[in-house]
Protein backbone atom coordinates (compact mmCIF):
# COMPACT_ATOMS: atom_id res chain seq x y z
CA UNK A 1 0.00 0.00 0.00
CA UNK A 2 2.72 2.44 1.06
CA UNK A 3 4.68 1.40 -2.04
CA UNK A 4 1.71 2.27 -4.19
CA UNK A 5 1.32 5.64 -2.47
CA UNK A 6 4.95 6.45 -3.22
CA UNK A 7 4.46 5.39 -6.83
CA UNK A 8 1.39 7.60 -7.10
CA UNK A 9 3.30 10.54 -5.64
CA UNK A 10 6.15 9.89 -8.08
CA UNK A 11 3.72 9.77 -10.97
CA UNK A 12 2.23 13.05 -9.78
CA UNK A 13 5.59 14.81 -9.66
CA UNK A 14 6.47 13.49 -13.11
CA UNK A 15 3.08 14.61 -14.42
CA UNK A 16 3.62 18.08 -12.94
CA UNK A 17 6.93 18.42 -14.73
CA UNK A 18 5.45 17.15 -17.99
CA UNK A 19 2.65 19.65 -17.65
CA UNK A 20 5.10 22.56 -17.45
CA UNK A 21 6.83 21.35 -20.61
CA UNK A 22 3.63 20.51 -22.49
CA UNK A 23 1.81 23.73 -21.55
CA UNK A 24 4.48 25.76 -23.34
CA UNK A 25 4.37 23.39 -26.29
CA UNK A 26 0.60 23.55 -26.58
CA UNK A 27 0.52 27.35 -26.28
CA UNK A 28 2.88 27.69 -29.23
CA UNK A 29 1.14 24.99 -31.22
CA UNK A 30 -2.29 26.43 -30.47
CA UNK A 31 -1.68 30.05 -31.29
CA UNK A 32 1.15 30.05 -33.80
CA UNK A 33 0.29 26.68 -35.38
CA UNK A 34 3.97 25.88 -35.00
CA UNK A 35 4.89 22.39 -33.90
CA UNK A 36 8.15 23.21 -32.24
CA UNK A 37 10.20 20.02 -32.37
CA UNK A 38 13.08 21.85 -30.70
CA UNK A 39 10.98 22.26 -27.53
CA UNK A 40 12.74 19.29 -25.96
CA UNK A 41 16.11 20.82 -26.78
CA UNK A 42 15.04 24.08 -25.14
CA UNK A 43 14.17 22.03 -22.05
CA UNK A 44 17.59 20.38 -22.02
CA UNK A 45 19.57 23.57 -22.68
CA UNK A 46 17.46 25.30 -20.02
CA UNK A 47 18.43 22.56 -17.60
CA UNK A 48 22.13 22.97 -18.38
CA UNK A 49 21.89 26.75 -17.98
CA UNK A 50 20.14 26.25 -14.64
CA UNK A 51 22.85 23.82 -13.59
CA UNK A 52 25.61 26.30 -14.35
CA UNK A 53 23.88 29.11 -12.47
CA UNK A 54 23.07 26.87 -9.52
CA UNK A 55 26.67 25.72 -9.26
CA UNK A 56 28.06 29.25 -9.65
CA UNK A 57 25.72 31.09 -7.27
CA UNK A 58 24.46 28.31 -5.03
CA UNK A 59 20.93 29.63 -5.49
CA UNK A 60 18.30 27.34 -6.94
CA UNK A 61 15.82 30.18 -7.34
CA UNK A 62 18.32 32.18 -9.42
CA UNK A 63 18.95 29.09 -11.55
CA UNK A 64 15.22 28.73 -12.12
CA UNK A 65 14.80 32.38 -13.16
CA UNK A 66 17.95 32.38 -15.30
CA UNK A 67 16.91 29.28 -17.25
CA UNK A 68 13.49 30.81 -17.94
CA UNK A 69 15.01 34.09 -19.14
CA UNK A 70 17.80 32.61 -21.26
CA UNK A 71 15.47 30.18 -23.00
CA UNK A 72 12.87 32.92 -23.55
CA UNK A 73 15.56 34.90 -25.39
CA UNK A 74 16.47 31.80 -27.39
CA UNK A 75 12.83 31.38 -28.29
CA UNK A 76 12.72 34.99 -29.41
CA UNK A 77 15.69 34.45 -31.73
CA UNK A 78 14.21 31.22 -33.08
CA UNK A 79 10.93 32.92 -33.86
CA UNK A 80 12.46 36.12 -35.20
CA UNK A 81 15.26 34.78 -37.36
CA UNK A 82 13.93 31.44 -38.57
CA UNK A 83 10.24 30.74 -38.15
CA UNK A 84 9.28 34.20 -39.28
CA UNK A 85 10.75 33.45 -42.69
CA UNK A 86 8.57 30.42 -43.35
CA UNK A 87 5.25 31.83 -42.21
CA UNK A 88 2.09 29.84 -42.77
CA UNK A 89 3.86 26.76 -44.07
CA UNK A 90 3.30 24.29 -41.25
CA UNK A 91 5.36 21.44 -42.63
CA UNK A 92 8.33 23.64 -43.45
CA UNK A 93 8.21 25.02 -39.92
CA UNK A 94 8.13 21.58 -38.34
CA UNK A 95 11.09 20.39 -40.37
CA UNK A 96 12.94 23.61 -39.68
CA UNK A 97 12.55 23.17 -35.93
CA UNK A 98 13.68 19.57 -36.34
CA UNK A 99 16.91 20.91 -37.86
CA UNK A 100 17.25 23.39 -35.00
CA UNK A 101 16.80 20.54 -32.51
CA UNK A 102 19.61 18.55 -34.13
CA UNK A 103 21.97 21.54 -33.98
CA UNK A 104 21.10 22.43 -30.38
CA UNK A 105 21.48 18.85 -29.14
CA UNK A 106 24.82 18.46 -30.84
CA UNK A 107 26.13 21.77 -29.51
CA UNK A 108 24.86 20.93 -26.02
CA UNK A 109 26.88 17.73 -26.26
CA UNK A 110 29.98 19.82 -27.07
CA UNK A 111 29.33 22.35 -24.33
CA UNK A 112 28.33 20.06 -21.47
CA UNK A 113 29.63 16.66 -22.49
CA UNK A 114 27.88 13.33 -22.66
CA UNK A 115 27.82 12.46 -18.97
CA UNK A 116 24.70 12.49 -16.86
CA UNK A 117 24.50 15.71 -14.85
CA UNK A 118 22.35 16.74 -11.92
CA UNK A 119 21.38 20.16 -10.60
CA UNK A 120 22.21 20.49 -6.88
CA UNK A 121 19.09 21.17 -4.84
CA UNK A 122 19.10 23.65 -1.93
CA UNK A 123 19.67 22.38 1.65
CA UNK A 124 16.13 23.36 2.51
CA UNK A 125 14.67 20.81 0.11
CA UNK A 126 16.93 17.88 0.89
CA UNK A 127 15.24 15.05 2.73
CA UNK A 128 11.67 13.96 3.07
CA UNK A 129 8.41 15.19 4.50
CA UNK A 130 6.40 12.94 6.76
CA UNK A 131 2.82 12.73 5.52
CA UNK A 132 0.64 10.54 7.72
CA UNK A 133 2.91 7.55 8.07
CA UNK A 134 4.98 7.71 4.93
CA UNK A 135 7.95 9.81 3.91
CA UNK A 136 8.12 11.68 0.64
CA UNK A 137 11.07 13.66 -0.80
CA UNK A 138 10.58 17.39 -0.24
CA UNK A 139 11.94 18.28 -3.65
CA UNK A 140 9.38 16.21 -5.50
CA UNK A 141 6.68 17.87 -3.44
CA UNK A 142 8.01 21.21 -4.65
CA UNK A 143 7.75 20.05 -8.28
CA UNK A 144 4.12 19.07 -7.74
CA UNK A 145 3.42 22.45 -6.13
CA UNK A 146 5.23 24.26 -8.97
CA UNK A 147 3.19 22.39 -11.56
CA UNK A 148 -0.06 23.30 -9.84
CA UNK A 149 1.05 26.92 -9.40
CA UNK A 150 1.97 27.27 -13.05
CA UNK A 151 -1.34 25.75 -14.06
CA UNK A 152 -3.20 28.26 -11.88
CA UNK A 153 -1.21 31.24 -13.18
CA UNK A 154 -1.62 30.18 -16.81
CA UNK A 155 -5.30 29.49 -16.30
CA UNK A 156 -5.75 32.94 -14.78
CA UNK A 157 -3.86 34.66 -17.61
CA UNK A 158 -5.70 32.57 -20.18
CA UNK A 159 -9.21 33.06 -18.86
CA UNK A 160 -9.18 36.28 -16.84
CA UNK A 161 -6.94 38.75 -18.66
CA UNK A 162 -7.18 40.65 -21.91
CA UNK A 163 -3.97 39.02 -23.09
CA UNK A 164 -5.42 35.57 -22.48
CA UNK A 165 -8.59 36.52 -24.30
CA UNK A 166 -6.47 37.56 -27.28
CA UNK A 167 -4.52 34.29 -27.18
CA UNK A 168 -7.72 32.25 -27.00
CA UNK A 169 -9.22 34.28 -29.81
CA UNK A 170 -6.05 33.75 -31.83
CA UNK A 171 -6.26 30.00 -31.29
CA UNK A 172 -9.85 29.95 -32.50
CA UNK A 173 -9.71 32.40 -35.37
CA UNK A 174 -6.50 34.11 -36.23
CA UNK A 175 -7.81 36.16 -39.16
CA UNK A 176 -10.58 37.67 -37.05
CA UNK A 177 -8.12 38.88 -34.42
CA UNK A 178 -6.02 40.52 -37.12
CA UNK A 179 -9.08 42.06 -38.71
CA UNK A 180 -9.93 43.73 -35.41
CA UNK A 181 -6.67 45.63 -35.58
CA UNK A 182 -4.79 43.66 -32.93
CA UNK A 183 -1.04 43.47 -33.48
CA UNK A 184 -0.95 39.71 -33.75
CA UNK A 185 2.75 39.61 -34.51
CA UNK A 186 3.53 41.02 -31.04
CA UNK A 187 1.18 38.52 -29.49
CA UNK A 188 2.96 35.72 -31.36
CA UNK A 189 6.41 36.78 -30.19
CA UNK A 190 5.20 37.04 -26.61
CA UNK A 191 3.56 33.61 -26.74
CA UNK A 192 6.63 32.01 -28.24
CA UNK A 193 8.82 33.50 -25.54
CA UNK A 194 6.42 32.41 -22.80
CA UNK A 195 6.22 28.89 -24.20
CA UNK A 196 10.00 28.67 -24.45
CA UNK A 197 10.44 30.04 -20.93
CA UNK A 198 8.18 27.27 -19.64
CA UNK A 199 10.43 24.71 -21.34
CA UNK A 200 13.50 26.37 -19.80
CA UNK A 201 12.19 26.39 -16.23
CA UNK A 202 11.03 22.81 -16.61
CA UNK A 203 14.61 21.99 -17.56
CA UNK A 204 15.88 23.31 -14.24
CA UNK A 205 13.11 21.62 -12.24
CA UNK A 206 13.58 18.32 -14.06
CA UNK A 207 17.37 18.52 -14.04
CA UNK A 208 17.36 18.17 -10.27
CA UNK A 209 15.43 14.89 -10.12
CA UNK A 210 15.41 13.32 -13.60
CA UNK A 211 19.03 14.30 -14.41
CA UNK A 212 20.29 15.85 -17.67
CA UNK A 213 21.93 13.87 -20.44
CA UNK A 214 22.08 13.84 -24.24
CA UNK A 215 18.85 12.25 -25.37
CA UNK A 216 16.77 13.62 -22.52
CA UNK A 217 15.51 16.21 -24.99
CA UNK A 218 14.01 13.64 -27.36
CA UNK A 219 12.39 11.74 -24.49
CA UNK A 220 10.77 14.86 -23.06
CA UNK A 221 9.73 16.00 -26.52
CA UNK A 222 7.99 12.72 -27.26
CA UNK A 223 6.12 12.88 -23.94
CA UNK A 224 5.08 16.46 -24.72
CA UNK A 225 3.93 15.39 -28.19
CA UNK A 226 1.86 12.60 -26.75
CA UNK A 227 0.30 14.97 -24.20
CA UNK A 228 -0.60 17.60 -26.76
CA UNK A 229 -1.95 14.99 -29.17
CA UNK A 230 -4.10 13.51 -26.38
CA UNK A 231 -5.17 16.83 -24.87
CA UNK A 232 -5.78 18.75 -28.05
CA UNK A 233 -4.04 21.71 -29.61
CA UNK A 234 -3.92 24.89 -27.54
CA UNK A 235 -5.99 23.55 -24.66
CA UNK A 236 -4.59 24.19 -21.18
CA UNK A 237 -6.99 21.78 -19.48
CA UNK A 238 -6.18 19.26 -22.20
CA UNK A 239 -2.49 19.62 -21.40
CA UNK A 240 -3.18 19.06 -17.69
CA UNK A 241 -5.34 15.98 -18.29
CA UNK A 242 -2.89 14.65 -20.85
CA UNK A 243 0.05 15.17 -18.47
CA UNK A 244 -1.67 13.20 -15.72
CA UNK A 245 -2.50 10.39 -18.13
CA UNK A 246 0.96 10.21 -19.65
CA UNK A 247 2.73 10.71 -16.31
CA UNK A 248 0.83 7.86 -14.68
CA UNK A 249 1.07 5.55 -17.69
CA UNK A 250 4.80 6.17 -17.98
CA UNK A 251 5.47 5.72 -14.30
CA UNK A 252 3.42 2.58 -13.77
CA UNK A 253 4.36 1.22 -17.18
CA UNK A 254 8.00 1.32 -16.14
CA UNK A 255 7.26 -0.39 -12.86
CA UNK A 256 5.02 -3.13 -14.27
CA UNK A 257 6.17 -3.79 -17.85
CA UNK A 258 9.52 -2.08 -18.37
CA UNK A 259 10.03 -3.77 -21.73
CA UNK A 260 6.93 -2.27 -23.26
CA UNK A 261 6.81 1.03 -21.38
CA UNK A 262 6.68 3.04 -24.61
CA UNK A 263 3.85 0.93 -25.89
CA UNK A 264 1.79 1.66 -22.81
CA UNK A 265 1.83 5.39 -23.55
CA UNK A 266 1.53 5.45 -27.30
CA UNK A 267 -0.90 2.61 -27.79
CA UNK A 268 -3.76 4.50 -26.13
CA UNK A 269 -2.65 7.73 -27.81
CA UNK A 270 -2.69 6.22 -31.29
CA UNK A 271 -6.09 4.66 -30.67
CA UNK A 272 -7.50 7.92 -29.35
CA UNK A 273 -6.23 9.78 -32.38
CA UNK A 274 -7.78 7.27 -34.73
CA UNK A 275 -11.19 8.14 -33.26
CA UNK A 276 -10.67 11.75 -32.19
CA UNK A 277 -8.05 13.23 -34.54
CA UNK A 278 -8.09 16.53 -32.65
CA UNK A 279 -7.58 15.07 -29.18
CA UNK A 280 -9.80 15.21 -26.12
CA UNK A 281 -10.20 18.98 -25.89
CA UNK A 282 -9.09 20.00 -29.37
CA UNK A 283 -11.10 22.30 -31.59
CA UNK A 284 -10.89 22.36 -35.36
CA UNK B 1 13.81 20.74 -68.21
CA UNK B 2 15.85 22.13 -71.08
CA UNK B 3 17.15 18.68 -71.96
CA UNK B 4 16.46 17.40 -75.43
CA UNK B 5 15.80 13.65 -75.63
CA UNK B 6 19.22 13.09 -77.21
CA UNK B 7 21.06 14.75 -74.33
CA UNK B 8 18.86 12.99 -71.82
CA UNK B 9 19.54 9.50 -73.19
CA UNK B 10 23.26 10.21 -73.42
CA UNK B 11 23.24 11.25 -69.76
CA UNK B 12 21.32 8.17 -68.71
CA UNK B 13 23.69 5.99 -70.73
CA UNK B 14 26.74 7.55 -69.07
CA UNK B 15 25.16 7.12 -65.65
CA UNK B 16 24.33 3.46 -66.25
CA UNK B 17 27.87 2.80 -67.51
CA UNK B 18 29.27 4.55 -64.45
CA UNK B 19 27.09 2.57 -62.04
CA UNK B 20 28.05 -0.69 -63.73
CA UNK B 21 31.76 0.08 -63.57
CA UNK B 22 31.89 1.24 -59.93
CA UNK B 23 33.44 -2.01 -58.62
CA UNK B 24 36.18 -1.84 -61.26
CA UNK B 25 37.13 1.79 -60.60
CA UNK B 26 36.98 2.08 -56.84
CA UNK B 27 38.31 0.41 -53.73
CA UNK B 28 36.28 -1.21 -50.98
CA UNK B 29 35.39 1.94 -49.04
CA UNK B 30 33.89 3.93 -51.94
CA UNK B 31 32.15 0.75 -53.10
CA UNK B 32 30.45 0.47 -49.71
CA UNK B 33 29.47 4.14 -49.96
CA UNK B 34 28.00 3.63 -53.43
CA UNK B 35 25.99 0.67 -52.14
CA UNK B 36 24.73 2.80 -49.23
CA UNK B 37 23.77 5.64 -51.56
CA UNK B 38 21.66 3.26 -53.66
CA UNK B 39 19.98 1.73 -50.60
CA UNK B 40 19.21 5.03 -48.88
CA UNK B 41 18.05 6.44 -52.21
CA UNK B 42 15.46 3.67 -52.35
CA UNK B 43 14.51 4.43 -48.74
CA UNK B 44 14.06 8.14 -49.52
CA UNK B 45 12.06 7.17 -52.59
CA UNK B 46 9.67 5.15 -50.43
CA UNK B 47 9.09 8.28 -48.31
CA UNK B 48 8.62 10.31 -51.49
CA UNK B 49 5.77 8.01 -52.62
CA UNK B 50 3.69 9.37 -49.76
CA UNK B 51 5.12 12.88 -49.49
CA UNK B 52 5.18 13.61 -53.20
CA UNK B 53 2.17 11.69 -54.46
CA UNK B 54 -0.26 11.53 -51.55
CA UNK B 55 0.65 14.75 -49.74
CA UNK B 56 1.43 12.90 -46.50
CA UNK B 57 4.82 13.52 -44.92
CA UNK B 58 5.87 10.61 -42.75
CA UNK B 59 8.45 10.66 -39.97
CA UNK B 60 7.90 7.00 -39.14
CA UNK B 61 9.49 5.30 -42.10
CA UNK B 62 12.73 4.67 -40.27
CA UNK B 63 10.76 2.34 -38.01
CA UNK B 64 9.47 0.33 -40.98
CA UNK B 65 12.92 0.22 -42.54
CA UNK B 66 14.38 -0.97 -39.26
CA UNK B 67 11.64 -3.47 -38.44
CA UNK B 68 12.32 -5.34 -41.69
CA UNK B 69 16.00 -5.31 -40.79
CA UNK B 70 15.37 -6.59 -37.27
CA UNK B 71 13.20 -9.47 -38.48
CA UNK B 72 15.85 -10.52 -41.00
CA UNK B 73 18.61 -10.20 -38.40
CA UNK B 74 16.66 -12.16 -35.80
CA UNK B 75 15.80 -14.95 -38.23
CA UNK B 76 19.33 -15.22 -39.61
CA UNK B 77 21.53 -14.51 -36.59
CA UNK B 78 19.42 -15.77 -33.68
CA UNK B 79 17.42 -18.58 -35.27
CA UNK B 80 20.02 -19.61 -37.86
CA UNK B 81 17.37 -19.44 -40.56
CA UNK B 82 17.79 -19.33 -44.31
CA UNK B 83 18.88 -15.82 -45.41
CA UNK B 84 16.65 -15.90 -48.52
CA UNK B 85 13.59 -16.92 -46.56
CA UNK B 86 14.45 -14.21 -44.04
CA UNK B 87 13.87 -11.62 -46.76
CA UNK B 88 10.28 -12.83 -47.17
CA UNK B 89 9.66 -12.54 -43.43
CA UNK B 90 11.31 -9.11 -43.34
CA UNK B 91 9.08 -7.81 -46.11
CA UNK B 92 5.96 -9.26 -44.48
CA UNK B 93 6.91 -7.50 -41.24
CA UNK B 94 7.45 -4.20 -43.08
CA UNK B 95 4.06 -4.42 -44.77
CA UNK B 96 2.36 -5.40 -41.50
CA UNK B 97 3.85 -2.48 -39.57
CA UNK B 98 2.94 -0.16 -42.45
CA UNK B 99 -0.64 -1.43 -42.38
CA UNK B 100 -0.89 -0.62 -38.67
CA UNK B 101 0.77 2.79 -39.06
CA UNK B 102 -1.35 3.54 -42.11
CA UNK B 103 -4.65 2.50 -40.55
CA UNK B 104 -4.00 4.76 -37.56
CA UNK B 105 -2.49 7.71 -39.39
CA UNK B 106 -4.34 8.17 -42.67
CA UNK B 107 -7.34 9.88 -41.11
CA UNK B 108 -5.08 12.78 -40.26
CA UNK B 109 -3.13 15.02 -42.59
CA UNK B 110 -0.46 17.71 -42.56
CA UNK B 111 1.29 18.26 -39.25
CA UNK B 112 -0.86 15.76 -37.37
CA UNK B 113 0.10 12.99 -39.77
CA UNK B 114 3.74 13.89 -39.25
CA UNK B 115 3.42 13.87 -35.45
CA UNK B 116 1.49 10.65 -35.35
CA UNK B 117 3.94 8.78 -37.58
CA UNK B 118 6.77 10.23 -35.50
CA UNK B 119 5.16 8.94 -32.31
CA UNK B 120 4.44 5.53 -33.83
CA UNK B 121 8.04 5.33 -34.96
CA UNK B 122 9.15 6.12 -31.41
CA UNK B 123 7.06 3.19 -30.14
CA UNK B 124 8.98 0.84 -32.42
CA UNK B 125 12.26 2.39 -31.30
CA UNK B 126 11.20 1.95 -27.66
CA UNK B 127 10.50 -1.74 -28.27
CA UNK B 128 13.84 -2.23 -30.04
CA UNK B 129 15.62 -0.43 -27.23
CA UNK B 130 13.98 -2.21 -24.31
CA UNK B 131 13.00 -5.69 -25.46
CA UNK B 132 16.48 -6.94 -24.71
CA UNK B 133 15.83 -10.68 -25.02
CA UNK B 134 14.85 -10.34 -28.69
CA UNK B 135 16.54 -7.20 -29.97
CA UNK B 136 19.72 -7.18 -27.91
CA UNK B 137 18.85 -3.63 -26.74
CA UNK B 138 21.64 -1.14 -27.32
CA UNK B 139 24.03 -3.72 -28.74
CA UNK B 140 21.62 -4.78 -31.43
CA UNK B 141 22.00 -8.06 -33.30
CA UNK B 142 25.39 -8.91 -34.74
CA UNK B 143 26.67 -11.46 -37.26
CA UNK B 144 23.91 -11.27 -39.85
CA UNK B 145 25.50 -13.16 -42.74
CA UNK B 146 24.53 -12.48 -46.34
CA UNK B 147 23.31 -15.32 -48.54
CA UNK B 148 26.33 -17.39 -49.62
CA UNK B 149 26.17 -16.18 -53.25
CA UNK B 150 26.40 -12.52 -52.23
CA UNK B 151 29.29 -12.73 -49.79
CA UNK B 152 31.68 -10.90 -52.11
CA UNK B 153 31.24 -7.10 -51.91
CA UNK B 154 31.33 -6.62 -55.71
CA UNK B 155 28.65 -9.23 -56.21
CA UNK B 156 26.57 -7.64 -53.48
CA UNK B 157 26.95 -4.21 -55.08
CA UNK B 158 25.60 -5.54 -58.38
CA UNK B 159 22.81 -7.30 -56.54
CA UNK B 160 21.81 -4.06 -54.78
CA UNK B 161 22.09 -2.10 -58.03
CA UNK B 162 19.82 -4.60 -59.78
CA UNK B 163 17.27 -4.73 -56.96
CA UNK B 164 17.17 -0.96 -56.53
CA UNK B 165 16.84 -0.39 -60.29
CA UNK B 166 13.95 -2.83 -60.54
CA UNK B 167 12.28 -1.35 -57.44
CA UNK B 168 12.68 2.20 -58.78
CA UNK B 169 11.01 1.21 -62.04
CA UNK B 170 8.16 -0.46 -60.14
CA UNK B 171 7.72 2.64 -57.97
CA UNK B 172 7.59 4.76 -61.11
CA UNK B 173 4.97 2.48 -62.64
CA UNK B 174 3.03 2.52 -59.39
CA UNK B 175 2.75 6.29 -58.95
CA UNK B 176 1.65 6.78 -62.57
CA UNK B 177 -0.85 3.90 -62.42
CA UNK B 178 -4.58 4.61 -61.95
CA UNK B 179 -4.10 3.86 -58.24
CA UNK B 180 -1.24 6.34 -58.05
CA UNK B 181 -3.39 8.89 -59.83
CA UNK B 182 -6.06 8.35 -57.17
CA UNK B 183 -3.44 9.11 -54.50
CA UNK B 184 -2.47 12.28 -56.31
CA UNK B 185 -6.12 13.21 -56.46
CA UNK B 186 -6.25 12.88 -52.67
CA UNK B 187 -3.20 15.10 -52.39
CA UNK B 188 -4.97 17.77 -54.45
CA UNK B 189 -8.26 17.51 -52.58
CA UNK B 190 -9.49 14.62 -50.51
CA UNK B 191 -13.02 15.99 -50.25
CA UNK B 192 -13.27 15.94 -54.05
CA UNK B 193 -12.07 12.34 -54.16
CA UNK B 194 -14.57 11.37 -51.48
CA UNK B 195 -17.34 12.95 -53.51
CA UNK B 196 -16.22 10.94 -56.53
CA UNK B 197 -16.76 7.80 -54.48
CA UNK B 198 -13.19 6.92 -53.56
CA UNK B 199 -12.57 5.27 -50.21
CA UNK B 200 -9.89 7.79 -49.20
CA UNK B 201 -8.61 6.12 -46.00
CA UNK B 202 -8.38 2.77 -47.80
CA UNK B 203 -6.47 4.20 -50.76
CA UNK B 204 -4.07 5.94 -48.40
CA UNK B 205 -3.59 2.85 -46.23
CA UNK B 206 -2.75 0.76 -49.29
CA UNK B 207 -0.46 3.53 -50.48
CA UNK B 208 1.23 3.49 -47.08
CA UNK B 209 1.69 -0.28 -47.27
CA UNK B 210 3.21 -0.07 -50.76
CA UNK B 211 5.53 2.68 -49.56
CA UNK B 212 6.39 0.59 -46.50
CA UNK B 213 7.21 -2.40 -48.69
CA UNK B 214 9.94 -0.43 -50.47
CA UNK B 215 11.22 0.97 -47.17
CA UNK B 216 11.41 -2.65 -46.02
CA UNK B 217 13.43 -3.69 -49.09
CA UNK B 218 15.91 -0.90 -48.31
CA UNK B 219 16.03 -1.93 -44.64
CA UNK B 220 16.86 -5.53 -45.56
CA UNK B 221 19.53 -4.50 -48.07
CA UNK B 222 21.26 -2.33 -45.45
CA UNK B 223 21.29 -5.08 -42.83
CA UNK B 224 22.95 -7.45 -45.30
CA UNK B 225 25.47 -4.73 -46.16
CA UNK B 226 26.42 -3.96 -42.55
CA UNK B 227 25.81 -7.46 -41.14
CA UNK B 228 24.20 -6.00 -38.03
CA UNK B 229 21.18 -4.07 -36.81
CA UNK B 230 20.80 -1.79 -33.76
CA UNK B 231 18.22 0.63 -32.34
CA UNK B 232 19.83 3.31 -34.50
CA UNK B 233 18.34 1.46 -37.48
CA UNK B 234 14.84 2.37 -36.28
CA UNK B 235 15.62 5.74 -34.71
CA UNK B 236 13.95 9.04 -35.48
CA UNK B 237 17.25 10.31 -36.85
CA UNK B 238 16.96 7.78 -39.66
CA UNK B 239 13.42 8.84 -40.60
CA UNK B 240 14.62 12.42 -40.50
CA UNK B 241 17.57 11.71 -42.72
CA UNK B 242 15.46 9.81 -45.24
CA UNK B 243 12.96 12.64 -45.37
CA UNK B 244 15.71 15.20 -45.83
CA UNK B 245 17.12 13.15 -48.72
CA UNK B 246 13.70 13.11 -50.38
CA UNK B 247 13.27 16.85 -49.84
CA UNK B 248 16.78 17.72 -51.01
CA UNK B 249 16.22 15.77 -54.20
CA UNK B 250 12.85 17.41 -54.63
CA UNK B 251 9.58 16.00 -53.32
CA UNK B 252 7.61 14.24 -56.05
CA UNK B 253 10.58 13.70 -58.36
CA UNK B 254 11.42 10.10 -57.30
CA UNK B 255 14.85 10.18 -59.00
CA UNK B 256 15.76 13.16 -56.87
CA UNK B 257 15.81 10.81 -53.86
CA UNK B 258 19.05 9.31 -55.17
CA UNK B 259 20.58 12.76 -55.60
CA UNK B 260 19.58 13.65 -52.04
CA UNK B 261 20.97 10.35 -50.82
CA UNK B 262 24.27 10.90 -52.63
CA UNK B 263 24.60 14.46 -51.33
CA UNK B 264 23.98 13.51 -47.71
CA UNK B 265 26.05 10.33 -47.61
CA UNK B 266 29.03 11.86 -49.40
CA UNK B 267 28.79 14.99 -47.26
CA UNK B 268 28.62 12.88 -44.11
CA UNK B 269 31.80 11.08 -45.07
CA UNK B 270 33.65 14.26 -46.04
CA UNK B 271 32.51 16.11 -42.92
CA UNK B 272 33.36 13.29 -40.53
CA UNK B 273 36.87 13.46 -41.93
CA UNK B 274 37.31 16.95 -40.46
CA UNK B 275 34.92 17.16 -37.52
CA UNK B 276 32.76 15.18 -35.13
CA UNK B 277 29.90 17.61 -35.56
CA UNK B 278 27.96 15.82 -38.28
CA UNK B 279 24.62 16.30 -36.51
CA UNK B 280 25.15 20.06 -36.42
CA UNK B 281 25.92 20.10 -40.13
CA UNK B 282 22.89 17.93 -40.91
CA UNK B 283 20.66 20.15 -38.79
CA UNK B 284 21.96 23.28 -40.49
CA UNK B 285 21.41 21.61 -43.85
CA UNK B 286 17.80 21.00 -42.82
CA UNK B 287 17.30 24.61 -41.72
CA UNK B 288 18.93 26.05 -44.84
CA UNK B 289 16.96 23.76 -47.14
CA UNK B 290 13.71 24.84 -45.55
CA UNK B 291 14.66 28.52 -45.76
CA UNK B 292 16.13 28.65 -49.24
CA UNK B 293 15.26 25.56 -51.26
CA UNK B 294 12.13 23.85 -49.94
CA UNK B 295 11.48 22.60 -53.49
CA UNK B 296 14.78 20.70 -53.35
CA UNK B 297 18.01 20.93 -55.28
CA UNK B 298 16.47 19.75 -58.55
CA UNK B 299 13.63 22.21 -58.24
CA UNK B 300 15.99 25.00 -57.22
CA UNK B 301 18.26 24.21 -60.15
CA UNK B 302 15.33 24.29 -62.54
CA UNK B 303 14.07 27.58 -61.18
CA UNK B 304 17.54 29.15 -61.41
CA UNK B 305 18.14 27.88 -64.94
CA UNK B 306 14.72 29.17 -66.02
CA UNK B 307 15.54 32.57 -64.55
CA UNK B 308 18.90 32.56 -66.30
CA UNK B 309 17.36 31.60 -69.63
CA UNK B 310 14.81 34.38 -69.22
CA UNK B 311 17.52 36.92 -68.53
CA UNK B 312 19.42 35.68 -71.58
CA UNK B 313 16.41 35.90 -73.88
CA UNK B 314 15.46 39.35 -72.61
CA UNK B 315 18.96 40.60 -73.41
CA UNK B 316 18.91 39.41 -77.02
UniProtKB/TrEMBL annotation, chain B:
This is Branched-chain amino acid ABC transporter permease. It is a multi-pass membrane protein. Coiled coil: none annotated. It is found in: Cell membrane. Pfam families: BPD_transp_2. Keywords: Cell membrane, Membrane, Transmembrane, Transmembrane helix. The chain crosses the membrane at residues 37-54, 59-77, 83-104, 111-131, 156-175, 196-224, 244-267, 279-298. It comes from Neopusillimonas maritima.
Amino acid sequence: MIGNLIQIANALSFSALLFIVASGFTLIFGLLRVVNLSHGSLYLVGGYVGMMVAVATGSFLLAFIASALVIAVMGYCLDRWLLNRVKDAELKQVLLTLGVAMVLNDLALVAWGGDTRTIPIPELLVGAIKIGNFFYPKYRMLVIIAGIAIFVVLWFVYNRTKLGALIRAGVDDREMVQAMGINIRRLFVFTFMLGSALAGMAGTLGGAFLTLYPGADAEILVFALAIVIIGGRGSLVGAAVGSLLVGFLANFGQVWVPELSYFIIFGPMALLLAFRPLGLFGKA
Amino acid sequence: MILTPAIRYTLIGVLVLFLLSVPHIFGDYPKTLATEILIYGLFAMSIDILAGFAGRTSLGHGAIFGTAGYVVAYYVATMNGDPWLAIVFGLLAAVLVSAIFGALAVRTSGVYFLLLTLALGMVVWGVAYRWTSVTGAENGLLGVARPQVLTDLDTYYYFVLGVVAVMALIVRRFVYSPFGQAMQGIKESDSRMRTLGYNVPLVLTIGFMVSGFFAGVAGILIVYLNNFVSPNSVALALSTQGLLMAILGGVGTLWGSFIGSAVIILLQNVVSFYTERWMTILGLLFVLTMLFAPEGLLGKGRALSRRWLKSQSSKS
